[in-house]
Amino acid sequence: MHVKLVAKQLPHFKIRLNELSLALFYENGLEPPPGLVDKKKRDPNNYGWRIWLQAKRLKEDPRDLKEIIRTSLENSYSRGDLEKKLKDHGLYLAQGDKRNFLIVHHSGEPMAMTRYSGMKSKDIAGKIGEAKNLPTLAQVQTQIKDQQSQVVKKRLADLKERQSVEARPLLAEKKAMTQNHRDERSSLKDFQKERWQREALNRANRLRKGIMGLWDIVSGRRGKVSRRNKDEILANRQRDRMERQEVITRQLAERQELQQRIKTLYSSHDNERKKLVKELGHSVRIVDKALTNEFNDAVHGKELDKQQGKLQDNFSDSSRQEEKEKLSDSFNEKAEPDRKDKKEDKKNNDLGRTRKRDR
Predict the structure, then answer these.
(1) Residue 12, φ and ψ in degrees, nearest 5
(2) C-alpha–C-alpha distance, residues 94 and 98, integer Å
(3) Could you tell me if 213 and 123 lie in one domain?
(4) Is the domain of 124 the same as that of 170?
(5) pTM of the entire structure?
(6) Same domain for 94 and 158?
(7) Which of 42, 118, 244, 312 could form a disulfide with 331 if both were Cys (CB 3.0 to 4.6 A apart)?
């Protein structure tokens, strides 16, 4: 059997559906909401999808916004009284393009007062006067920009100063440690150089001259002394290298411990900056170019202070190796045998080869 379906206009369908919903509550023995029974008992802070979307963009609770605007308007008896109460919550009065009443959020976004307050424009005008007497939306947005720019700059400057003060002890400790390590390496270098010269003189004195030296060559004693000197030179070089390596290892460990504290402090400062940027970014639209640059620096983790920039010499594997090579080079510059010692080694080797040929 073929059934033909016909669509018919249902007048006042929302009212009919409300009546049907109320009947279903009673039919199932449930207590209906007071607002469904009597329109006057509806929650004044209920909101529609337009208010919900706008509150979501503003990172605000739509119920809180409606409560603030509605109670402020109900309890105000003049325009000045209403403006003062709204300003305490970061809201401002303005007129729209059609001379309607607007509430301007501290981010600069306009909101319809009739939608948030639940009152008609005529009733609002009876309390605070005509909308044409209010500043325009552009004027209010400019005012908010000027006020908020000063607030943002001050909070960024305060954070910069506080973080700079917190970093000063670590900067001073780093500077003192660098100087102490440099002095220690210099002292060890001078000590090793003096000791090497003293030991080279002792080795040279073992090689007798004149007739006794000639006899040493003939008897083979000169070759033994030369080999002994050569062995001592190799052992002393190894000893000096180990002493330098011990100092390098210890200084790197001390520097890395300090660097870890520096990185912890910088990470804390970085989180503070990002938190502040997030907070301020939700409360004000940045249109000032200089202020935008400061925000971008904070977002990308750049320091707000030149001194703090000195804290970022992170000790990665490559930088540790570079530091280690730098320390080694500073030792090796003057701690290696000088030209006189090299001539002595060559002379000992030549004498050893001469003794072998004589045999």
Answers:
(1) 55, 50
(2) 11
(3) no
(4) no
(5) 0.48
(6) no
(7) 244
Structural domain count, the chain = 2
Instruction: Provide the token pair at 177.
Output: 């440690």
What pLDDT tens digit does each residue of the chain (359 aa) get?
A: 678 888 888 787 888 888 889 999 999 999 988 888 888 888 888 888 999 999 898 888 899 999 999 999 988 888 889 989 988 888 899 988 776 899 998 888 899 999 998 888 888 888 888 888 888 888 888 888 877 777 777 888 888 889 899 999 999 999 999 999 999 999 999 999 999 999 999 888 888 888 887 887 888 888 888 899 899 999 999 999 999 999 999 999 999 999 999 999 988 988 888 788 777 655 555 445 555 566 556 555 554 444 445 444 444 444 555 555 555 555 554 444 445 555 555 555 554 454 444 44
Please say which residue of 91, 114, 135 terminates a domain: 135
Report yes or no on 285 lying in a domain. yes
Residue 19 lies in a domain: no
Phi-psi region of 118 (alpha: psi -120 to 50; beta: other; left: phi over 0): left
Do the beta carbons of residue 10 and residue 16 sit within 8 Å? yes
